[in-house]
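Something for you to look into today, if you have time. Could you write out one complete protein record for me, on any chain you like? Leave the record below and I will have a look.
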Amino acid sequence: MSEVEGTVLGHRDGHGFLRRDDGAPDIYLAPQEMRAVLHRDRIRVRVVRYDRKGRPEGRVLEIVERRKSPIIGRLLHENGTWLVAPEDRRYGQDILIPKNATANAAVGQVVAVELTEPPSMYSQPVGRITEVLGEIDDPGMEIEIAVRKYEVPHRFAAETLAQAAQLPDRIRPADQKHRIDLTDVPLVTIDGEDARDFDDAVYCEPLKRGRGKTAFSGWRLIVAIADVSHYVKPGEPIDDDAYERATSVYFPRRVIPMLPEKLSNGLCSLNPDVGRLAMVCDMLVREDGEIDAYQFYPAVICSHARLTYTEVAAVLGNTRGVEAQRRKDLVPHLLHLHEVYRALLKQRGTRGAIDFETTETQIVCDDNGRIEKIVPRTRTDAHRLIEESMLAANVCAADFIERHAHPALYRVHEGPTPEKRVSLQAYLRGLGIGVSLSDEPTPAELQAIAQATKDRVDAAQIHAMLLRAMQQAIYTASNSGHFGLAYEAYTHFTSPIRRYPDLLVHRVIKALLLAKRYHLVTGEVQNPAQPPRRAPPKAAAKPSGKAKTQASAQEMEVWEGAGAHCSANERRADEASRDVEAWLKCRFMREHLGEEYGGTVSAATTFGLFVTLDELYVEGLVHITELGGEYYRFDEVKQELRGERTGVRYAVGSRVRVQVIRVDLDARKIDFRLVREGEEADRLLARGRKPAPASAVDELEVVHVRDRETKAARGKALASRQGAGTKGVAGKKARTAGAKSAGAAKATKSRTRR
């Protein structure tokens, strides 16, 4: 049997999997194999058998590397023993803590543990407490747990803070050299009300030039992006910290920034009425939305206003309203932005780009950081015009880099794999949607399906399935286009404050503007023919034909490594954000235990249904055991559970009513129970309360039932006071009255259910 290396992925149920380094399917690890290893350890295993479905099972041969990061958990004291129960259930084992290694933490507090003895086949892991985070109910504790659980860097190095402190508070005359002065151009920022850093500003004006066939009619669109690369230089402490983080991480009420606050909220934030350094993408957009020409250049700008999406939407909706009067000097420019947005939107349709209608939600927290409410996020034309402007600048950046054949990081999004295409086709066919997909589906095909189904009641679920059919977007040096947006080349240029790939793209563009080349390994900008002063590790000392090709391959390998790092950290940030949101939602739903809500089945699995509540926008699980005494079979093609005896079907998009029955805060799980028709009336009757009758006849029947029950009770009391002879006769009458009462009650219940 073969031997492979990889990373352990623990499971809360005790078993685990080996994520192989070669990307092949995961290998199952039985619970006994997991006793000596922990989640995220690196190990080597031998495949010892295959199950009925051909899935491999492994045996641990060697522990290659132990994960050294702290483990977060809660301190417990059981039977005289101190131990920490990991907050991440994938670790699978509690950690023993010697009495002298508790760091004065109290029982129940959240702590960080460093392992001093790893687990073995016959012993639990042992550790010592290195940090006491506080009580589980402390405001913001869920974020403190998440950043450590997912190893999100949340403290800047001392060298980084020292370097940031030495930066100027405002731009200096020396910073403005060799830059175009755009301070008189009325650029504006448009962001959400709670935004604190502003990395993009926009301006638009109509433009006509020339005559005849060479005439141009359209708009000049300027997108100015904060010039972070002017302050963050390769190899410096700020750059090292930024690369390690790769992205800012957004939580409700808190952000873990990629850059120190002096940069992200100060020097690099395009705050209104102050001079700022920017990299500008200056575009000419035709009336049909085609970008006719573009140029990049460094500039000095001054934002003329900090606008919100709400303000801009109000201006576009009523050019004579209060908001328009308050911003009357900017109204013409906002209208031009709206015009160019509609042209770009038209071009999006021509390309066949995918535009799904999905419901995004926003968590509104109170002063203690707890969920106050969850509301749908409304997207207006103000949001969309900024999105289309940023897309246009990103496309120009990708085209500029590709034309110069310079290595860089592209944002690549590939279409459905053959397996996902077949599954999607079967799913659509099961819904009666007779749209066929080609062997290599185009974005236009999926967009056509989205358009054809947008008015269906299950449109949201169909669009979700279309999204799942596509692959995840990544950063890579190998450009293969962006499937969802229908671009042949696409990159990220517009958010260098919060994304490291954008910062790298800025450095590449600056080098190309100087007719030079940016070397990622050394951070140097040199002439194309000039070799880097410091060669990459294991690189040939220097060049002749074949060696030159080898150096180029090594350079691409370095860029690919950077792309993989940024992609992985982006996923880490998303997981940490989702973890915090799940914790907050569980905490929120604990206050709604026992309550009933209408909802929609968002996913069907072999073990139950995931249901999203209408009013609260929270998802939970209806386990298959809560569906009643029926055997349900999962249909993977139709994405539904079907009862074998009754034929009852629960498919994605089905409407159901559920009751909140259980909330597991540690596991981030919410459990529902299916409420069947008529159960509410039954419970009200059991409590002696009258359910709302379906008609006057039903109401009268309920009154009759109560009368008979009262008479039966009186007869029983009378019988108990009479002698033995009469007792038998009275008892018989009472039993007869009771039987009639029960029969009437059954009839009433039956009619109520109907």
User: Anything to note?
Assistant: The first helix runs from residue 141 to 149. The chain is about 35% helix and 25% strand.
